[in-house]
């Protein structure tokens, strides 16, 4: 085995202690994050200030010793780069301006995100050699939901209506997002990312035909394009809430690994996706709760996947009220397995 545990699993190696990191591991639950965040004008300012974004990316690795860092950014930098207004309102979440699909400018969108690549370069230079660096992007359906809805949504009526009523216009939007995303991911890899993850946060709101058309097909196009340029880079897909469609996603998109959300039974996932690296899937609420339940769940997941390449992670992002000492407890439990 090499000295890079996270990357070993993508070579088919099973390690006594599974490598680990956590979704949203850099961020609001850490007091040191707020020390940096309070020096900025806002969330996007932090994302686009490489010195500070790099510091925030490194904080959890220094504190807990994860086997991978994930660059501090956001999936909505793509709409921003395409020319749509994007802002983050404290306590309300993202707000996006009016969308004119044919006014978006994909050419040069990747270049407009140059601060993110500088963050990647700084983090890669600062990380220990054994610690991997993950770049990421939102998958087209999820990014498009924010672009069409103008922010977060519960019903997704606008985007579903547009996709059903005018699939040609919606298809142009998806094509534009794909083009920008391929460029964006490629530039992160060139800057030093060792792997990439695609976040399909709203995979679970679609019927099977729409899931195949607007989730699987666009993701496959991105995976194919990235792999053509960077065949050695592991690609992780996270179709949150996809349910039984997760197996089709895994097989048909061509991703190397699947991040499981907390609702996916691990035994079922092992049988349904035997050739894929699995990542996950501790419930973030259990991480908040801590105690014996946390110990039991960490051990249960690790025991269930001990016989195959596996990355321990959450099934969704760390929530702000998570006590840092509970993350430290996960690190301790995983070290015990080594």
Keywords:
single chain, 338 residues, alpha/beta, TIM Barrel, 7-stranded parallel β-sheet, two-stranded antiparallel ribbon, 15 helices, 9 strands, 49% helix, 13% strand
Domain count, please report it. Answer: 1
Classify the helix fraction into a percent range: 40-55%
**Shape descriptor:** globular
Beta percentage is: 5-15%
The name of the CATH architecture is Alpha-Beta Barrel
Query: Structural class, please?
Result: alpha/beta
Number of continuous helical runs: 15
Straight-line distance between termini = 14 Å
Q: Name the average pLDDT.
A: 96
Query: What is the level 1 CATH name?
Result: Alpha Beta
Q: What is the tally of beta strands?
A: 9
Alpha-carbon Rg, integer? 19 Å
Residue ranges: pLDDT <50 for 5 or more in a row?
none
Q: Largest sheet, described in full?
A: 7 strands, parallel
- For this structure, the CATH topology is TIM Barrel
Order of helices and strands: HHHHEHEEHEHHHEHEHEHEHHEH
Strand order of the largest sheet: 1-4-5-6-7-8-9
Can you describe what's shown?
With 338 residues, this protein is of the alpha/beta class. It has a single domain (5-337), classed as TIM Barrel, CATH 3.20.20. The chain contains 15 helices and nine strands. It has helices at 5-8, 31-37, 43-47, 50-64, 77-82, 114-126, 140-149, 157-165, 167-191, 208-229, 246-253, 266-272, 284-289, 291-304, 324-337, and strands at 68-70, 86-89, 93-96, 132-138, 195-200, 235-239, 257-259, 277-282, 310-314. α8 (157-165) crosses α9.
